[in-house]
Amino acid sequence: MFLDITDLTKNFGGLVAVNQFSMGVGEGQIVGLIGPNGAGKTTVFNLITGVIHPTAGKVEFDGKDVTGKSPHTIASFGIGRTFQLTPLFTEFSTLENVVASYYLHPRSSFWDTFFNSPTYRRNEAYALEQSLKILDLVGLSKVKDELARNLPHGYQKMLGIARALAVQPRLLMLDEPLGGMNTDEITFTMDVMAKVRSQGMTILVIEHNMQILDLCDHVVAINFGQKIGEGTVLEVRNNPDVIKAYLGEQNVA
Amino acid sequence: MDTIITCTVNGLVLSAIYILVALGFSLQLSIMGIFNFAHGAIYMIGAYITYGLSVGLGLNPWVSLLLSVILVGAFGLFVERFCFRPFQSKITRMIVMAIALILILQTAVEVTLGGVTRALPAFVPGILRVGFISVDAERVLTFCIGAVLLVAMTYLIQRTQIGQQMLAVAQDAEGAALQGIDTHRTAAIATVIACATAALSGSLMATIFSMNPFMGDNILLKAIQVTILSGIGSIGGILAGGLIMGLLNAFLPVLTEASIGELITILIVILILLIRPKGLFGYELF
Amino acid sequence: MRIGSSITLRKKVTSIVAYAAIIVFLALLPTLGLPVYPMHTLIGVFIWIIVASSLRLLDLSGQGSIGHAAFMAIGAYTSGILAKFLGWSPWITMPIGVIATAAVAFLVAVPFTRVRGIYFTMVSLFFGIGVLAVNQVFSKFTGGYSGIGSIPLLFGYDKTPYYYFCLVLLVVCLGIIYRLEHSRIGLTWKAVAQSHSVASSIGINESWQRILCLGVSCCIAGIAGVAYAHYYSLLTQDTFSFNTSINVFVYMTVGGPRYFAGPILGTAALILIPEQLRSLREYVPFIFAGILLIVLFLMPQGLAGLLEQFKQKFARSSKTESVETDDGVSKRVP
Predict the structure, then answer these.
(1) What are the chain B neighbours of C250 within 8 Å (beta carbons)?
(2) Which end of chain C is more exposed for a tag (fewer CB within 10 A), N or C?
(3) How far apart are CA C262 and CA C305, in angstroms?
């Protein structure tokens, strides 16, 4: 498996937020992580990306043990992620957000940067060029000079994805990318995800909104920090435990 | 033995003052989110108004004290409304505003009365003797006033509706407003209490030690130190923190050089900021 | 200045030309007959602009310090003591002073950058006071409250070489700060300031970046410190006190921390205006306070922000430009 999570556990004092959670993501797949509010989905994300440290368990990415490493190290291994809230650099323009995120590759040395060497200038030009391409891909080219915090909500979420793409990840982790979007925006976002996957990206996506299931090769359901089911879209949809967990949720198809 | 008693007495007196001033400072911080850098200047101006009224105009010292407390309390209302509320979440601006205020107050004093260090005559002159301990009556008064005020404050916050409202606003201003609590009125009351106690402490301090236009600078630092030490949210915490700080400041200069003592205090404060920012007793600091 | 925007190049060239013109003017002043006292004042302005700008550099990474004078002190006292008591040439002790500042800065940066926001500011406050206390503790070497006098001068008694020296130092330091701010390093620092979690997620080691920023900023303050020591020749407890740190902080804030020219304008205004009105003697602090109040209530973005607004009004551009107001609402100006 490209991403392997084994028996991941997280205790906060007396509260067990994630309990022996295991799952895998194959290379080139789109895997969905679903569950009701408070199920522990974002906690799992935070555990994988090093924002919080697991109490127990292991996270392996592309054969490497990345358990408990710091977020920036995880990013350098090729994992990019979005956040549910505050997904952006609010004082930067849309373009600057993406260019700033082109931090890891290519990476100019301090002296190259300070003395504005040809290497540095080449790297920066490349970053700018690639950033414009990404903005094109996510449909934000028109607002590239707009201040990020002035963007409408749907655009902000797209910018979050653009930013994560700038890391040039091999695994893209999206935390509720469809949150607060209208139907058109949802379709567009799913199109982008499909396009990105067709270029070889592996995607792990948390979502509430069941529409995302149409895209997924594999779905894992979680509730109260524990896996309650997994399989293909159809299997999970018909899983009684999953249905029970979502009773009362309006988004069950 | 004598030294220990003197130090303890001094420590308790200092504690009382520190607690009063720190209380005012952290009240404003927790309830209004105002980092009142000028709190020391208000403490100072309280002392000078008392001086001006009693020594300058010849009014009865107690009347002067009362007037000073009232005037400074009112001034505090003005300051909160027009000087700090406009900059509520912008801390850098607030600090600059406070600097402007400090400059204005200090210069006003320097221009009218001069920067000379003065003494304010004690409210209760004389010495008390208890057993083999002899203590300035003024220091005993200060301690007593401090203790009484502290008890009153605790009662106010824990038993009255106003106090509960202040607690509510301190924890969640928006939520409190939604519950129908008049946050502006609560803020006003907190400010008046803070400034009034500052003026009182300043006047008392001026009788025990001395007064000059810059006496507020040092007390501000002490108030911040106590607030950091104790954390916010617990009056008992401020009490404990103030006691610790007061006793430290009384004993350390005797045990070791004054500057080493200060260094020790500063190191303690920095350590707390780095390791346990919410203070020893409180919930959350800033 | 926005990356990729077409106005950028034109703005950059205009800025550079403007700064060059000012530098040339300042360089020519002595030859045009600048009297001694104004020259002395300007030297002070140069030194404090360096410190205020270093403070702003630190602010780029989201860290606000109100104890920066302490780093000046470390450099100044180190260089001053070595020069005075060991007899070494200031040209040797000054770099040593800067290195000492850098060493201390990086040493304390590691624990200090563990905290952010106002906690960091409080730590800086007490660090500043702590350095003063250390000064007192070692008063045998540092002269305690009355400090050290007769520190060997850099040049002779004529002020002109100092003027040029400090001007050059100013241009170099500002150049360094400008380059850092407008390079990817500055971009990274600004990113860290806005959201440390997002910055981490794109691979930025945000703790290390903040340490780096603090280190560089303090170094520059140290440079100003050593220049101060070997010009004014006297260092006392009051020279680098808490008041000094706050003053520099105020210079930066009044000038407008969002703008490169902010510390320059703020320092110049808050030193030169009260200086011009020094005949008012004990009323001068009122003038200072007055300037603060005017800027606080009428110029939300500081003096530099006001300047920027004027520039926007007179700039000719074919497309619409966005003007930021302080409440964050983007307005379109035709």
Answers:
(1) 96, 99
(2) C
(3) 8
Residue numbers in C near A150 (CB within 8 A): 330
Interface residues on C facing A, Cβ-Cβ cutoff 8 A: 2-5, 179-180, 183-185, 187-188, 190-191, 194-195, 197-206, 322, 324, 328, 330
For B46-67, letters b (16+ CB in 10 Å) and e give bbbbbbbbbbeeebebeebbeb
- ipTM confidence: 0.89
* C110 and C199 co-located in one domain: yes
Query: Closest by alpha carbon to B17, among B257, B217, B222, B183?
Result: B222
Contacts of C215 in chain A (CB under 8 A): none
Q: Answer whether the bond into residue A106 is a cis peptide, omega within 30°.
A: yes
SS3 of residue B129 by DSSP? strand
The pTM score is 0.89
CA-CA distance, B269 to B276, in Å (whole number)?
Answer: 10
Asked whether residue A208 is domain-assigned, the answer is: yes
Q: Which residues in chain B are contacts of C65 at CB distance < 8 A? A: none
Give the number of domains in chain B.
1
pLDDT for residue B88 = 81
Which residues in C lie closer than 8 A to residue B274 (C-beta atoms)? 111-112, 114-115, 123
Cβ neighbourhood burial of B110 (10 Å; 0-12, 13-18, 19+): middle
Q: Do B100 and C296 touch (CB under 8 A)?
A: yes
Residues A65 and A117 in one domain: no
Q: What is the mean pLDDT of residues B41-57?
A: 90
- Give yes or no: residues A174 and A250 share one domain: yes
* Closest residue in chain A to residue C187, using alpha carbons only: A100
| CB-CB under 8 Å, A104 with C203 | yes
Check CB contact under 8 Å for C115 and B277.
Answer: yes
Look at residue C240 and tell me whether its pLDDT is greater than 90.
yes
Same domain, A178 and A153: no
Percent of residues, chain B, with pLDDT higher than 70: 97
Say if B96 is an interface residue toward chain C (CB within 8 Å). Answer: yes
Closest-CA residue of A relative to C5 is A145
- State the total domains in chain C: 2
Residue B82 lies in a domain: yes
> Which residues on adjacent β-strands are paired with residue A220?
A33, A230
* CATH number of the structural domain spanning residue C96: 1.10.3470
Beta bridge pairs of residue A226 = A223
What is residue B14's predicted lDDT score, i.e. its pLDDT? 85
Best CA proximity match to B31, nearest among B226, B220, B165: B165
Q: Which residue has the tokens 């997924």?
A: A216
Span C67-125, pLDDT tens digits? 999 999 999 999 998 988 888 888 999 999 999 999 999 999 999 999 988 889 999 99
| Domain-located, residue A83 | no
Evaluate whether residue B228 is within a structural domain.
no
Establish if A233 belongs to a structural domain: yes
Say if A and B touch: at least 3 Cβ pairs within 8 Å.
Answer: no
Cα–Cα dist C231/C153, whole Å: 6
